[in-house]
Queue: 3 jobs
Job 1
Amino acid sequence: MSAHVTVLYFASLRDFAEVESESFDTQAPDLRVLYLELRARHGFPLPVERLRVAVDGAFARWEDAPRDGSEIAFIPPVSGG
Amino acid sequence: MSAHVTVLYFASLRDFAEVESESFDTQAPDLRVLYLELRARHGFPLPVERLRVAVDGAFARWEDAPRDGSEIAFIPPVSGG
Amino acid sequence: MARFRLSEIPFDVAALRAELLDARVGGYASFEGWVRDHNDGRAVTGLRYEAYAAMAEAEGERILDEACSRFDILDARCVHRTGDLAIGELAVWVGVSAAHRDAAFAACRFVIDEVKSRVPIWKHERYAEGDAGWLHPSD
Amino acid sequence: MARFRLSEIPFDVAALRAELLDARVGGYASFEGWVRDHNDGRAVTGLRYEAYAAMAEAEGERILDEACSRFDILDARCVHRTGDLAIGELAVWVGVSAAHRDAAFAACRFVIDEVKSRVPIWKHERYAEGDAGWLHPSD
């Protein structure tokens, strides 16, 4: 089972990834595993416990499977206001 | 013991007194008695319990004696804001 | 400069707010009271505020001094209208600047609550039915 | 019209406030966050806000909808800056109109607290020492 996804990077995650977004096919069974794979590849310091995950612009659950064609964002702790 | 005082009337008290202020000599032993006398004279509906009293621009106590030359205001419940 | 003022004429909130802003300010909280078209279920057509001016200014100043010492704020101001006001007109403005929002909100709330309970200002409402009266709240 | 907006350029509070006022409004509470010259004991020279714009707008709108249903208010709005900001610049504005002040204060506080905790916007601070960094608060 492979899903084509686009991942968006913001704030410190983007600094480490050195790109704003990337698109690829993933076999990760859920969003948690997907983040752990990307963390290993890019060297993100933030552990999964400090992030939230969003799919197509709405908060999602870490145990959700990556949907084909979806836009995924890992949300570091926010600091607006 | 007589004290010359000026009494200021505001809001509903002024409507009943029909003057903004009046100056007179009083023998009242304290400000509570002074108000009760003025209430009888002008027909103020507000009982002393619903008022505060101020002397020369600062809140005072009902048991204070009227000071000669002072400006006394009976303060109906306020409704600013 | 006085932190509390009475104003017999409409006043400009933007200018008052600008006086409170400096580089240390992280949070600014404000409250404004406007003349609304109803009160206690009755249609209101306008109102008049009367103040015991000298005492209102002194008592208002004490409230703002208390706010500055009780809360971790940078500054606080308040202006209250007197005279005749139409529906929609600004009756009172409170502005508070602070490094952080907790203190700004708490002090702003403190000031408007104290002004409403302690400052000798009275509201005279005119009603759509033609009558009018002073508001002397029981509490 | 959207109740929550992002703005890449400085925006005018007076115009936003004017949109909230009508004859039913008795109380208007607002909060503004300004860029201050220090944070956590460090001298700050300026900052940048970055947003996940589409999601920030959707989440901001949800917060304002929640405020309107939870509190007895007439309306609520919020605008948040993005991009580069200098010391003293306005970063965020929240405005709430209501018949009475209790609801106006409570809703205003709710909105700024939720915006700060839920809306995907990140602050990048530049320090006087020359370094800079993203703020990712632990709580």
Job 2
Amino acid sequence: MAETQALTKKDLKSDQDVRWCPGCGDYSILNSVQGVLAGLGIPRHNMLFVSGIGCSSRFPYYMNTYGMHSIHGRAPAFATGIKLANPELSVWIATGDGDGLSIGGNHLAHILRRNVDVKILLFNNEIYGLTKGQYSPTSKIGLKTKTSPMGSVDRPFNPVAFALGCGATFVARTIDTHLKHMEATLAAAAAHKGSALIEIYQNCVIFNDGTFDAIADKTVRDDKTIDLEPGKPMLYGKTRDRGLKVEGFDVRMVPAASADTWKADTSSAGPAFVMSQLDGDPTMPRPIGIFRSVAAPIFNDGVNAQVRDAIAKKGPGKLRDLFYNGDMWQVT
Amino acid sequence: MAETQALTKKDLKSDQDVRWCPGCGDYSILNSVQGVLAGLGIPRHNMLFVSGIGCSSRFPYYMNTYGMHSIHGRAPAFATGIKLANPELSVWIATGDGDGLSIGGNHLAHILRRNVDVKILLFNNEIYGLTKGQYSPTSKIGLKTKTSPMGSVDRPFNPVAFALGCGATFVARTIDTHLKHMEATLAAAAAHKGSALIEIYQNCVIFNDGTFDAIADKTVRDDKTIDLEPGKPMLYGKTRDRGLKVEGFDVRMVPAASADTWKADTSSAGPAFVMSQLDGDPTMPRPIGIFRSVAAPIFNDGVNAQVRDAIAKKGPGKLRDLFYNGDMWQVT
Amino acid sequence: MTQTRNVGAELPSQQFENVVIRFAGDSGDGMQITGSQFTHTAALLGNDLATFPDFPAEIRAPAGTQPGVSGFQVRFSSSDIHTPGDRPDVLVAMNPAALIVNIKDLAPGGIVIVNTGQFTERDVAKAGLKSNPMTDGTLSGYRKIEIDINDRVKRALEGSPLSPKDVQRCKNFYTLGLMYWLYSRPLDPTVAWLKDKFSKKPELAEANIKALTAGFNAGDIQELFQARYEVAPCTTMAPGTYKNITGNEALAIGLVAGAELAGLKVFIGSYPITPASSILEQLASYKNYGVISFQAEDEIAAICSAIGGSYTGHLGVTTTSGPGMALKGEAMGLAVSLELPLVIVDVQRGGPSTGLPTKTEQADLLQAIFGRNSEAPIPVLAASTPSDAFECAVEACRIAVQYMTPVILLSDGYIANGAEPWRLPDVDKLPRFPAKFTTVAPEGGFLPYARDEKRARPWVKPGTPGLEHRIGGLEKAHLTGHISYDPENHDFMVRMRAAKVAGVRDTIPTPAVVGEPQGDLLVLGWGSTYGSIASAVEIARHKGQKVSRMHLRHVWPLPAGLDEIFSRFKAILIPEMNLGQLARLLRSEYQRHDFISYSKVQGLPFKTFELNNKIDAILGK
Amino acid sequence: MTQTRNVGAELPSQQFENVVIRFAGDSGDGMQITGSQFTHTAALLGNDLATFPDFPAEIRAPAGTQPGVSGFQVRFSSSDIHTPGDRPDVLVAMNPAALIVNIKDLAPGGIVIVNTGQFTERDVAKAGLKSNPMTDGTLSGYRKIEIDINDRVKRALEGSPLSPKDVQRCKNFYTLGLMYWLYSRPLDPTVAWLKDKFSKKPELAEANIKALTAGFNAGDIQELFQARYEVAPCTTMAPGTYKNITGNEALAIGLVAGAELAGLKVFIGSYPITPASSILEQLASYKNYGVISFQAEDEIAAICSAIGGSYTGHLGVTTTSGPGMALKGEAMGLAVSLELPLVIVDVQRGGPSTGLPTKTEQADLLQAIFGRNSEAPIPVLAASTPSDAFECAVEACRIAVQYMTPVILLSDGYIANGAEPWRLPDVDKLPRFPAKFTTVAPEGGFLPYARDEKRARPWVKPGTPGLEHRIGGLEKAHLTGHISYDPENHDFMVRMRAAKVAGVRDTIPTPAVVGEPQGDLLVLGWGSTYGSIASAVEIARHKGQKVSRMHLRHVWPLPAGLDEIFSRFKAILIPEMNLGQLARLLRSEYQRHDFISYSKVQGLPFKTFELNNKIDAILGK
Ligand SMILES: Cc1ncc(C[n+]2csc(CCOP(=O)(O)OP(=O)(O)O)c2C)c(N)n1
Ligand SMILES: Cc1ncc(C[n+]2csc(CCOP(=O)(O)OP(=O)(O)O)c2C)c(N)n1
Ligand code: SF4
Ligand code: SF4
Ligand SMILES: [Mg+2]
Ligand SMILES: [Mg+2]
């Protein structure tokens, strides 16, 4: 029975108790995802969530859709198999900064490179939550954790830059506490044809509380972040009085009127990457929103087209022809 | 006995027969590496080559230095352990596009992110050589190989962009047949403090012959490539009559006189990344040379400094103190 | 001295040989600390001890729910004990969830102390219960002591500067005080601990000490008990300095010590995974011991970096649990081929796959021995108790260095988190096994794959002038180590590597038989079944059964002499927390014995009575 | 018809039952093609056949060197044969390196045909030889036929438009022509093949045909021989349509067929690795069969993608060799926990580690059975010959689908690259085992971990309305599949998974004993030792020894009835290309038999005579 009625958020809640710590940023992400997905017009049975291992990777259990809680770091590989084998499914990955960028970095890189039509939610809390607080590949230098008692000396990844370096076709960033922005970003990702990576700043109240406060706290957010909206001027500040402008290779702060218009679909990923580099500059607002959104051939389309073409050209393979071909001889 | 005399190229040749196919680009790379390393003033016994598996990964056997031919894709992990444990060694990795970017992509990403002081030679022949000709993560779309009989639909990685996305501090590109350029690039990498990734366009005569001809063949090279030389204007063409200029996010071809000066050490990796994106534009020269060369904290320095600091602060650990501490009690 | 009233003095004092208490509450209730403090005090009083913490897989499961229950069982005794006890004599339950999850384990007639302040209708509902277990018959057959601890703490801390929420956080120390009174224990050690712990927050120290003291002095509660209890010091413990230690702590210390005894420094490359993470964490804090700790991007990079560390002349170590072990197989094969020392620690947990990450199991034995492509032999050791993990770690280092080989050391979740008193070793008496580095080419030239009397090849630090050479995973010619595709050489090298590992047998002892050297039944164990087996065999022997026991530390290669020992028993019982992996291994080695496999795969250690029932069944009693 | 003179007519014609020829030359000399063409023609003539190609690990080792030698051995026969022969009767050596590498294998008194055109001093030096083997006594005891093939080809192709270099490339066809003459074979099949192969380069076709014909017609050479030889068609081959097939080809076809018989499409996720790559390559060419082939970034992604494929309702397949197997362990454990069908193919090669990548070995057996964390049982099959790989692939698909389980199929380098005649199956007679997908919730609700009579759980395609559910690697509650940390449930599920896999035994036959049902010795094999064992036992029985044989296709779980069969023999000899892995497994299962392990780990199959010597030694003759 196809579901005919539109879904509500509640339809997407599974019967399992949600078991994150009270106050964890994961709750609001779950809630936003359920809200956005309910509105996509996709029947529940065609939605599928894949995850690895981590607090964030518990996500699929809480979605009343199909789902697989797989092994650590490998969700993109499962998702690629799933999407190739059944392109009708709307496939989503929930992963963490450890799951997706530490053990799973290569699979993430390759799914983005190939542009498999899968949406990837990267819960970045800059820590390993589930294993109780070791530093992660996105932890800030100097962070003291159980495995870095004198402070971490690992230079962190910038997930947006990483994704762009892999040739990702859709890259965005949002914040667990910025609900409206998160929902808009999720909706844009859902609409994108191809791989979409959404980095979500997510607060781990237990092991890395407040790591994003300096930019993401509601009191400073408007001044400390800039929302990259394709086709719109790059403005920020509570009154949107300031903006950004690109001069040569440099990005400068300018009055709103002189701000450049943001383009996320240039043929070069250069602009998006340039914006990603603002992260390192404390004087600059942190870009969130849509860094890149560009059309490109989709891997699962390409693979399935070859299957279709081969069938069209050679006819659907018959078992007999599989055996009876090439140099044969008879024994009588 | 420390070696007192300067090394010659011959000193770095091992007693093993070189077993690449006749005409393979690997020969000239070996030759250049031996030449450049002989001139570094480093004693042979302090040089160490690590590799994974592939034609290119046979490299260590041919170097009369210490060396490890490890397992597929993992050379950066071995090299990280080696460099952390003995920072005195000059550690080099030889890897291929399959070894380094397919199975080993994650380790490559992490060694670059951490900025371990190791030099990485990425032999990019856009094919799996040793396993006899399957497409690789750098193969061009449409390439017909044994595993892509109808043409590859995998969008290729751009190794330079990948490395920049990982936060690499030194990224360069050179060509197996461009000996002078290769040697200059190797020398620059050797001089860099921190991770250095050198992508080397390498011809596989057997399985992917001529894949770089359109840009790397000596007859067209001057027109089809541009050598990024830090501090010099971005010029190309046989008579160096043309150049590149950056306008906003765009890179334009201009007469030599209007060319911008190339900077590889900007705080943002944006410029290098913008240049890497020219690869996709057939009307543009292909950048080779030094995309990025910037100073940053070195992982092995950081790790070893903490060990030294801990010893300085707490004194060198004694076995007895390891046991006799905390809450103890006596049984008599 | 803390002021304690001597209210209970009029109550009769009862002597016990040993007592098992389980503290259970919500994850946020601090039960692990309560248990540890009780343990610590018991240790100072000279009791023998064993503990078993049991906490949820979730970081913070929703408060008040059954999955959120955290427990800590401690057994303290005036005689030698080997396990934390089959069932608690006393259960402290801080809320309905803790009560319902744990009550079925309580010994019949046991005491259950309930915090009635946390038994509102809402609390009962949160625990997923239809009825209140205080009143619905759940507690019949037990001695129920009801205390509104919430309220008592509130009253005890009236006037405290702490917020009401923080006041409630002192509940566990109130409870601890009560238990101290009940078991006639002093408060001072805990008071000292609190003062130290909260040296920067004296108001917290004070509040907790107040709560502790109030619990101890709660005369009206004390009237609910019929007696105070005493457990005398254990007089059979060997003299020496002790401390309480968990298996992971002991293992980490053992690795540093083992390296030191070999004249080396530790290089640990590891990736966090429950229940192994704390070994990495602890080693990361031993930087002043020259330990280089590297948190790698995954388990494969971890072991590869450790091999790199060994190549340069460090003692390479990598630590993990089952799923991580499965990932390291390929690199282990390389280590076998390179013939470099390496210690691989697998703290086993429930499986398959992600399984039961916080529960214990012994099911990685065959993976450890056989889980690599081709013939890639590696010696395998297994720790049997928390403090034994120290000795096994040292032994693993010895074998690795003396035989130039990777060594696998198996521990498990029960050992990792469990604690026991550890008699601190006399540093001067520890055996030394210095690593020998080749620094100059011998007469006739340097041969990287020449071998010494243990079949070990030479170890050369890169950086040594004149000994430059290359090693790798392709088959190597005997002596020169050059790549060789020669068929006979390959056969020779495969057998050489096997012989080298089998030769480890020459430097390990035949394990002792505890009990008569012959009899009706030998109970044979490996790993963390040690305690349960020791207890059960003790009981069986008291009953007059002809039962002895033996425990394997070296599970591969098996020690010499087993065949002969086995032949002195009518049957050999092998209890394992897997489906019979050691039993399978032994059957494959020794054909003529009656091996009886006894499996339990519940993520929990064997209970002593389970083993005794099994022994009885075999011996027909 | 090609023009052939009938020069040899006057030579006596000698009949042979079977002949073994080895073509050996430089990697660039086209020996693999020469061998295949000879094989192909023999097949058309109705001979039984077995081949053994042996090529260097290097893509193009330096020309003329020993490591650069490439060989192809073909045995063709008028009777049933099982191996490519212990030693060649005729060796064709195109250069000194080829001669020196192969000569020691040639049967005493055998013919060696030498291309003297490639025996200059430089050639001898390139081969790393101090003296010319043509003259230094190396060839004493053999019949040496000297031909300057370089020169002859040059002359035969005089006036050809080809460059001198390309002319020399026709050498192998000249040689082939000569061998065709010697063994009285027609040229037509090869002529047809050349025309087809070079249809776009007719000048190449023409030149090669000219060379072939010239070789056939070289009267003066023919005078060097004392006879022409004939090998009559094999009359004992079962009637039917045949083609020559390698193990990897048969395996690939078997996977497509197996999926089809289950009503499914293949999803293969794989990563190239010698000697497994060609399975992926072939499946990539079967797109019109609906095969989805995915070359993943590594072996882990490969198996994970295949599990993803299975989850959606395809037949997930992943193919690899030893080092890749070692990487897949963790994901296999997940597949066990998810209980989804999956076929994992391991084409074994020499190890440990990278080992001898192009050589064969059987040393992944215990890895296949035990190489995963915790109790993660998986059925394991092993192919015994190239064509058997087809049947095993189909059987692996059957078990995977019927039992909802991953299945491991072992092959090895010898099977993968070796070829034999395959009698093409009758499509209608192949057994069908359609997969059953659950599409609607049964009465009482859908239970993802309910079980059918084979203990298989239901398979639901995502996209099915109303059956949404989640699966994962944490332990699952019986029936509901919800996460469960319950101890009893875990024990139950561990045993359930073990029982399910053990239950495969119910649908597999007890393997046949070939020979008497009882006797002095049973030679028991698995995998590619099949041919050598069959030949050796045939010989032994001819000699009157009381020897029978049995071969295992299902190595885990072991089939029912073995214990009883074993008890009918005094001893059981188990030849293996490892250090005795099956022998260990059998000892662990059956305690009372005398299993004799016979190991050879040289990267090469057993020779028949080696087995006969061993049998003789055991039986005391
Ligand atoms: C193979 C393997 N290695 C290690 C682990 C242990 N582990 C589980 S989750 C995790 C890291 C989780 O960090 P992240 O992805 O950031 O998720 P978070 O918990 O922070 O949401 C680790 C190391 C595992 N489950 N499997
Ligand atoms: C674990 C593992 N998987 C697969 C292989 C097979 N393999 C060896 S080299 C190689 C690819 C080599 O490609 P590349 O790194 O580009 O090197 P090239 O030969 O082209 O120089 C592969 C897939 C292996 N040796 N080990
Ligand atoms: S540990 Fe951190 S990330 Fe995990 S559930 Fe708790 S708050 Fe969230
Ligand atoms: S196969 Fe290609 S890359 Fe490998 S040695 Fe030959 S030419 Fe070089
Ligand atoms: Mg995280
Ligand atoms: Mg390559």
Job 3
Amino acid sequence: MMDFITEKFSGPLGLLLSLIESEEMDITEIALAKIADDYVGYIRSAKNINPEELADFLLIAAKLLFIKSKALLPYLYSAEEEEEINDLEHQLRMYREFVAASQRVKEIINTRHWLYLPPFSNAHNRRSQFNLPVFAPPAKINSGLLRERFLEILGGLEKQLAKNKEEKLLEETLETKISIDDQIIIIKQMLVDKIKVNFSRLLAAAKTKTEIIVNFLAVLELAKQQELIFEQSELFSEIHISRLADK
Amino acid sequence: MSLKSQLESLLFVSLKPMALKDLASLTDTKVKEVEAAVQELFLDYQAGDRGLTLIKNNQQYQLTTSAANSVVVQKLLKDETSGELSQPSLEALTIIAYRGPIAKLELDRIRGVNCSLIIRNLLLRGLVEESFDKIKNENFYTITNDFIRFLGLRQLNDLPDYDKLSRAETIDEVLRAAASLLPAASER
Amino acid sequence: MSLKSQLESLLFVSLKPMALKDLASLTDTKVKEVEAAVQELFLDYQAGDRGLTLIKNNQQYQLTTSAANSVVVQKLLKDETSGELSQPSLEALTIIAYRGPIAKLELDRIRGVNCSLIIRNLLLRGLVEESFDKIKNENFYTITNDFIRFLGLRQLNDLPDYDKLSRAETIDEVLRAAASLLPAASER
């Protein structure tokens, strides 16, 4: 039997799609801007996101916040950035088509109109009438060759293991450094110490793209909670962040 | 005997899917002729009231029982299983079925998430196959005959909406690409 | 589907000749009807330009390749079991030699792909043998005595560096990693 495990969603696009559908909206820029906060809220509280997939979830979060900020300040955005938003809409529509197709594929499999092969048997009746040899070794094989091959296989596996360990280490550091809530605390602390912080300094401390996104999300979150003031003297110049006077 | 009958004998005895070029070398004929004869056989099985089906996948052919008789065949054989399929695996299989041969990056892009682990799992279960493209220096993935057998189809083209979903680009993407070639498109 | 087509499916998957009464019970029909349908099938194969034929022996029926094509069929069977091993087959054989008795799932995990077809080929050539472990409900593979003798050895542990290589920790580590990342899909 082929069983299907059902999960709430699969991957960041699955989450995005389920949020949009739960609001009964179509895939549009307005819809994406509207659900941006829900999406970020979900990944902040979700405990079951696979660390391997976290970066992909955050990337979509960053795109959504970008769309949301554009909805608020449309004149700041260029045609090129417009394109990027179209891409997310397009990607999501295509994904939705494949999710629908996967449901049809599941139904087809479940009808169990499977095609069968004869089971394999060494004494297969289709062969027995041909008097085939029961032992047919390849000519150029010897025990030394087997040993050599086995050592090569071990070598290949060792490389694979080392690579996996490296990736795992990367993930672990990612995981430990990545919490948005922790980042909020760090930023608040920096502001207590310094009163004013440059946004670029915050980002300079980030080591990976994911960390940049986390910083970005943390700052936005603090802004939403109305704990921060942003000042920018002109377009594309440094952004200064400071705390609102004690609330 | 005719080429078609020889091919039927070979497909009946073979334990694995047969490539056109292997069939050609065994029967000592040109690939073109083999292709025409196999196609005839493919249509014969489709047309008649037959208990056998010829699967065509990845330019390989394999003889199996027909979909309509699955119930009676299950009585004779031990139940075959392909284990559990999670929603992410099902999505990946669907995308590979419609878009294969597909590169890993393209699969990741459509699902919006890294699919390494899912691919490893599907390879182990024999539901997808990996082949290395030397020119593009990338691995490509296709569906195996085993998965086609679970679908009960003769070929992937028989999947619902195959023409629409198998195209690498949807219509609006094509239109957009065409528009960007026009000088006026830069002025928005 | 028609009775005739059901019988064709059953005869195709059956490894041994089938009696009329077994065919009747599987298709839930009377022996008389089955007999008539089998006769019809027999005539179909006779009349057309077919690569298959139905033979009757001791009231038992069996589907086989037509005699006229035996030369080309023999060529295929010979090709399957002669010549040098492909790279993947040699790898599987090596792993079975040093790590046997080894479960199919473990072999798949070490190689990262499903090895069903490769194992079949090694079984056909008499290089490995299969034994079913009732407690673990799994097939295990070892190299055959014929193959050990062919290598000029008296027993399996005469393989060069056997003690060291058969216990290589790397493989256990790979298997542990695979088991934690890719939980066993139920075997077929």
